[in-house]
Amino acid sequence: MSGRILVGTASWTDKTLLVSGWYPPGVDTPERRLDYYAQQFPLVEVDATYYAPPNERNSALWVARTPPEFTFNVKAFSLLTQHPTKPGALYKEIRPDTTKNVYLKDLDQAAVELVWDRFLGALEPLYAAGKLGAILFQFPQWFPIGRANKHYLLECKRRCAPLPICVEFRSATWMSPDNQPETLDFLRSYAVPYVSLDMPEGHPSSIPPVLAATADLAVVRFHGHSDKWTSRDIYERFGYRYSEQELAEWAPRVRALAEQAGETHVLMNNCYRDYAQTNARQLADLLAD
User: Fold this and answer.
1) Interior angle at CA 288, CA 207 and CA 134, nearest 5
2) Does domain 4-288 correspond to CATH entry 3.20.20.410?
């Protein structure tokens, strides 16, 4: 018995989307845009929370502006996934007097606890309303497979509970041919959802397109196949439009994955103009056929 499949995109507010013509005339405020988006798709990923922690008021507004069954996946704050973080993105009480990027290891334990508490507290309205799909922990290239990093991954799950998480790797060590069975067994043994990826191959951050359900939730994120993946320009990296043929080849694979999970989230992260929204609609239609 196949679980339900939700298809959506990794943004509804991207500046290139707003000028693309995807939103009809008059849909020109944050409230109207989210309302319109939620009429088109049942799922969205909040990307802004990676760059700056969310606040409780925004979460409450998202709840109020979407239908009862709508689902938000929320990207974890960069500090919590061991990425460099701009000092200005930190809460004022713990903001260091520096212009250099800050890492989690740079903060004392009290500051670390404050970040976790505030971040998770801000998501409480979504969770209470049954609208939080999962918190996405996207780990960097310098987060390879190993005992300490496995422990940190489980710490993330423990700290977030009962809020659900899912994990995306960008170090190929986790999914190398030798380590892939170990990684998937580890995630299954702790019921941590693995995020399957479609992305450019041949780069240090490349993960092979292995579809695997390691928990009741399965997640697939589509990053496109730009030949400018190493560009510092985010639109050059993700500005890739999937063809109908590419999506048609993916549809049966996604259906097969959904047979292994209670719910499957499919997110188009090729966020440039209306590429993600167009491809998400195409894939949703293919999956519905």
Assistant:
1) 45
2) yes
